[in-house]
Design brief:
By secondary structure, the chain is an alpha/beta fold. The protein has a five-stranded parallel β-sheet, sandwiched between helices. Helix 6 crosses helix 12 and helix 12 crosses helix 13. The chain is globular, with a radius of gyration of 21 Å. The relative contact order is 0.12. The mean pLDDT is 89. Keywords: DNA-binding, Transcription, Transcription regulation. This is MurR/RpiR family transcriptional regulator. It comes from Paenibacillus taichungensis. Pfam families: HTH_6, SIS.
């Protein structure tokens, strides 16, 4: 199932009654939707064009044309893809290697189709010019924020990654205009991370969220919501494909920053590399 349709299915029972009717019509005939007008969808769902627009924006689309375009793109790819593969008892190692490769490739491809280039560009510009950057994430998400932290430090950005909820709030409280807080949570429902980003926003900082696609609380709090694929299900996957998807977006943001301000960041990146290499040679013979 396409990530957009999966998100609609997951959120169906939580939607207001009119928006639920729109989602039900879409789920019943997803391949027909790209050819419909907004008025036709409103008529089929017994709602109005304004309600359809509100429904699309609640799922972070610019409007119905944007929704149709992204749904069509997903549907054109999903017919040729296999489902994510879960852990199976007694699987030979060769099958495990194939399954993990397929899951990671699918996660990256699904995520790429969900990316909004306008939001990405805005996020890159904010991060490039930020006076200070706070990164918030707990559990598996903290691994992602630590990865981004190490990248940003290498290009000279003033940045800290916090996994402790008290320190997240403490640091967020001291942010202000010109600072950026970015919060990572695959579910988008981690209370500590939501509280920290809300605090940073209240303090005057610009806010970015990175979550799985859907109508979640963290995305709603942020100025710039970024999304990954939401297709990884089941408790036995150990946050594997989802972690890869989150890291994929982090790599895009970092590469976008360096490309956007090449003359400022590349010398710092090269200097940090040479300094680390010299340290390794000096202290452990290059091991």
């Amino acid at each position: 199932m396409a990530a957009i349709l999966h998100a609609l299915q997951q959120e169906l029972n939580e939607l207001p009654s009119q928006e639920r009717r729109i989602a039900e019509v879409i789920l019943q005939s997803p391949s027909d939707i790209p050819g419909w007008t907004i008025n036709h969808l409103a008529q089929q769902s017994g709602t109005s064009a304004a309600t359809v627009t509100r429904f699309c924006k609640s799922f972070h689309f610019k409007g119905f044309p944007d929704f149709k375009m992204k749904l069509a793109a997903e549907l054109s790819h999903s017919t040729n893809e296999t489902a994510y593969q879960d852990i199976v008892a007694g699987n030979p190692l060769s099958k495990i290697v194939e399954a993990i490769e397929a899951n990671h490739i699918a996660s990256i491809a699904d995520t790429t189709r969900l990316l909004d280039l306008g939001r990405l560009e805005h996020a890159v510009q904010l991060l490039c010019h930020a006076r200070r950057i706070d990164l918030y994430g707990v559990a598996t998400s903290s691994i992602v924020t630590q990865d981004f932290y190490q990248k940003l430090v290498r290009i000279g950005k003033s940045c800290t990654a916090f996994s402790d909820s008290h320190m997240q709030i403490t640091s967020a409280s001291s942010l202000g205009e010109g600072d950026v807080a970015m919060a990572v949570s695959y579910s988008g429902e981690t209370p500590e991370t939501i509280d920290a980003l809300h605090c940073a926003k209240h303090a005057g900082a610009s806010t970015i969220s990175l979550t799985s696609y859907g109508n979640n609380k963290l995305a709603a709090v942020s100025d710039i919501p970024l999304f990954t694929s939401s297709l990884e299900e089941g408790m036995r996957r150990g946050d594997m494909a989802s972690r890869i998807a989150l890291l994929h977006v982090v790599d895009i943001l970092f590469t976008g920053m360096v490309s956007a301000d090449f003359d400022r960041f590349i010398p710092k990146l090269e200097q940090s590399y040479h300094n680390v290499q010299s340290y390794r040679v000096q202290h452990n013979g290059g091991a």
